[in-house]
């Protein structure tokens, strides 16, 4: 392993012994994978093909167990995501120094170089397939994000950054302006959300998406929030931080090929887009920015993207 750079440190495993629990024989040394911000990932060859060992650095055993159960269900339903490999005995989720560890088959593919309208159509269809395959899925271990609660915290916070007063006023104003609509949004069809679908969490082979990765942000909520989060990521990737209307239209078109949106879901999608933007920005400004070299709320791209897209103009005509 001395020839590899492990950006988050090694997993600290006896790999041959660990893989024996899964009926696998290690063939060679592990190599780090750099994808994923919140996990350690190692790829290693075995007698049954390459596998990826994933150590979760922030998610706890209960949540990861819910993720594993959902991934198995999705993979069994034909959804393109790696199905976790079961150990021969014991729990599906191992523990390493208190951190959950799961083994996945390695999937070959490339991260798309850019988000195109054709890829946006496929992303929409994939989200709809996930929502359809998991319809009625109930697992109390899947967390629910209190987005309005996060904005309440933001409005009352004492974050000391330039521009923080405007951000706090906007968080309070958002809650007041949209109180009734947020109640309607919460009542829309709900289920498990990927909540982190962007191009870095896709693997493609030519025109085909061969894997959807990283369900670490799995939570339960209104399904349109998955579309809204995708749109937020697409906006943040743009130089001007504005969501391209063509990408948004392609996403929704792909989604509706599989699962048509209700009139209420279409109406509230622009609000959902604003909501995920200001919540993402508020979470960063409260819980990450104080530990980073950031002097102004303007250092948060999610905040600037929220302001650039406020009102959901790119989604309103859909």
What sequence of helices (H) and strands (E) makes up the elements? HEEEHEEHHHHEEEEHHHH
Question: How many domains comprise the coordinates?
Answer: 2
* Relative strand content: 5-15%
Strand-pairing-aware structural class: alpha+beta
CATH topology of the largest domain, anyone? Aminoglycoside 3'-phosphotransferase, Chain: A, domain 2
Count the beta strands: 9
Q: Judging from the principal axes of the Cα atoms, what is the shape?
A: globular
Per CATH, the class of the largest domain reads Alpha Beta
CA gyration radius, whole angstroms: 20 Å
User: Which spans have pLDDT < 50 for at least 5 consecutive residues?
Assistant: none
Work out the helicity level.
Answer: 40-55%
Strand order of the largest sheet: 1-2-3-5-4
Please give the count of helices.
10
Q: What is the name of the CATH architecture of the largest domain?
A: Alpha-Beta Complex
Largest sheet: 5 strands, antiparallel
Protein name: Aminoglycoside phosphotransferase domain-containing protein
Family: Belongs to the pseudomonas-type ThrB family.
GO molecular function: amino acid kinase activity
Organism: Glycomyces terrestris
Features:
globular, five-stranded antiparallel β-sheet, Aminoglycoside 3'-phosphotransferase, Chain: A, domain 2, two-stranded antiparallel sheet, alpha+beta, 9 strands, 318 residues, 2 domains, Phosphorylase Kinase, domain 1
Task: Give an account of the 3D structure.
The structure is a single chain. The chain is of the alpha+beta class. It has 2 domains: 15-105, Phosphorylase Kinase, domain 1 (2-Layer Sandwich), CATH 3.30.200.20; 117-309, Aminoglycoside phosphotransferase (APH), C-terminal lobe (Aminoglycoside 3'-phosphotransferase, Chain: A, domain 2, Alpha-Beta Complex), CATH 3.90.1200.10. The chain is built from 10 helices and 9 strands. Strands 1-2-3-5-4 form a 5-stranded antiparallel sheet, with helices on one face. The protein has a two-stranded antiparallel sheet with strand order 6-9. Strands 7-8 form a two-stranded antiparallel ribbon. Strand 2 (39-44) and strand 3 form a beta hairpin. Helix 4 (147-156) crosses helix 5 (164-177) and helix 4 crosses helix 9. The radius of gyration is 20 Å and the shape is globular.
